[in-house]
Structure formats: C-alpha cells, structure tokens
C-alpha cells in the first residue's frame, strides 16, 4: 500500500524567496558590482599573493622531502639497497603464490562434501587468522559449517 504524500495546506501562497528569487539575485549582483567599483582594496593582488604563498609552501615541502630522501640514500649503501629490494620482491612473490594456492584449495561450495547432497552449509563467524588473510591478501574469506556433521569448511574468493 502506497503512502500518501502530505500536501501543503496553502498551495496558492509561495514563500517570499521563491517568489522574488530573480529580483533578489539581480539586486545582490548590483550591490556587489557597486562595492567592487567603489572600494579601494586590491582584492586581486591579495588573492594573487595568497595563491603564491600556497604554491611556495608546497614547493618547500617537496624540497624538504627530496632532501630527506637524499639523506637516507646517502646513509644506505648500494649493496644494502639491492638486498632490500630483493627481499621485498621475494616477499611479494610469496604472497602472490600463497594467494593463488588459497584460491585453488578453498573453492566455492554449496553443500557438505562428506554428507549426502542436500545438507547445506551455514555461515559461522570468522576467526582472527581469516580476517588477517582478508586484509593482507585482499581475499574474501567465508567460514561455513555443515548442519548435519558439523564439519567446518572455508570458502575463499577474490575481492570484487
């Protein structure tokens, strides 16, 4: 059943702002134009100086970050840097391999593999290690339990 919208009591009377919106806009434009003609402030110069200070602030921040990187790279030797890159790349390869193995081992199922077909699985709460897998490997982890034999089963899927 649809809800009926409540109609305004007095449909004929519009609010002052709705009725005179155009006139108010034109009047405010005229007042602003006269103010900008009469005033003695240098608004454009003030805005220019403000924007210039913001740009120089960002430039100084970039220079400070660049100097910190130079300082760090001068402190670390080239062999140390190559070693760190190799260790990082090996860690990346391990996480990719683990992700692929988890996706192939725990595929999506709807029924218990040990019971006869027809016994559906019920979702249960995730454990902490499943939440860590979810966070680090960017996978969706679901924990299921059979309603008949109470066997627990994981389902791991890719994130959408």
Quick one: how many beta strands?
A: 3
- Percent range for β-strand residues: 5-15%
Unreliable stretches:
none
Mean pLDDT: 86
Which structural class do the helices and strands define? mainly alpha
Cα-atom Rg, whole angstroms? 33 Å
Roughly how many Å apart are the termini? Answer: 36 Å
Total number of helices: 5
How helix-rich are the residues, as a percent range? 55-70%
Q: Enumerate the strands of the largest sheet in spatial order, edge to edge or round the barrel.
A: 1-2-3
Q: Which sequence of SSEs, written as H and E, runs from N to C? A: HHHHEHEE
Question: How would you sum up the major sheet?
Answer: 3 strands, antiparallel
Shape: flat
Task: Describe this structure in a few short sentences.
With 160 residues, the protein is mainly alpha-helical.
Account of the 3D structure:
There is one protein chain. With 160 residues, this protein is mainly alpha-helical. The protein has a domain at 78-158. Helix content is 57%, strand content 12%. The protein contains five helices and three strands. Strands 1-2-3 form a three-stranded antiparallel sheet. It starts with 15 loop residues before the first helix and ends with a strand. The model has no long low-confidence stretch (mean pLDDT 86).
Give a quick set of tags describing it:
three-stranded antiparallel β-sheet; mainly alpha; 5 helices; 3 strands; about 160 residues
């Amino acid at each position: 059943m649809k809800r009926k919208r409540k109609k305004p009591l007095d449909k004929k009377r519009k609010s002052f702002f709705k009725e005179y919106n155009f006139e108010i806009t034109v009047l405010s434009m005229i007042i602003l134009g006269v103010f900008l003609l009469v005033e003695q402030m240098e608004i454009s110069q003030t805005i220019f100086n403000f924007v210039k200070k913001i740009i120089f602030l960002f430039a100084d921040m970039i220079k400070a970050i660049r100097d910190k990187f130079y300082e760090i790279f001068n402190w670390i030797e080239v062999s140390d840097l190559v070693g760190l890159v190799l260790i990082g790349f090996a860690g990346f390869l391990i996480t990719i391999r683990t992700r692929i193995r988890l996706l192939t081992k725990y595929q999506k199922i709807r029924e218990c593999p040990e019971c006869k077909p027809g016994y559906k699985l019920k979702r249960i709460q995730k454990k902490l290690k499943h939440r860590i897998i979810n966070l680090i490997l960017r996978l969706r982890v679901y924990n299921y339990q059979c309603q008949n034999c109470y066997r627990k089963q994981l389902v791991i899927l890719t994130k959408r």
